[in-house]
Every structure is written in C-alpha cells, then in structure tokens.
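Most newcomers find our protein records easier to grasp once they have seen one. To make this concrete, we reproduce a full record directly below:

===
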Amino acid sequence: MLRRKPTRLELKLDDIEEFESVRKDLESRKKQREESEVAAGEEAAGIALGAEHKSREQIINDRIGYKPQPKAGVRAAHFGTFEF
C-alpha cells in the first residue's frame, strides 16, 4: 500500500463567512422552533388539565394502538393444568 503525504486544507475568508451565515441561520431556526414548542406546550398543558387523566400505560397503549382484551376463563390459580 502506497503512503502519500497528507493533503493540506486552507481556510479562506469566504469559507469563514459562509460558515457564520449558516450558523446564524440555524440558530434563528432553533429559536423559532423552541418558541413555537413553548407556545404549543402551554396550549397542550391547558388541554391536558381539562381532559380526563389517564395512566402512563393507557397513554402508551393509545399511542401505539394496542387495545388489551381480557381473556375469558383464565385459570391462573390452577397449577396442575397445562394448556398450551
């Protein structure tokens, strides 16, 4: 395997200006997103207080679409019965 000398990278003034503009743009987007999340969170908190309170398990089941159905005739107390 041939070994070559490391490539030299030069940082130019244009690159620095482009980096600064992109960084400022990302920071402004982040601020707007955070402000909208805070406003949405306050609205959601007001709605959640008015809604019925659900347990954590119920909230997760609703979110994933799981609706547990109790099994009829379950004999958990009978240890001698093996049904598969």
Remarks:
- Helices lie at 13-50, 56-64.
- The mean pLDDT is 79.
- The CA atoms of residues 74 and 80 lie 14 Å apart.
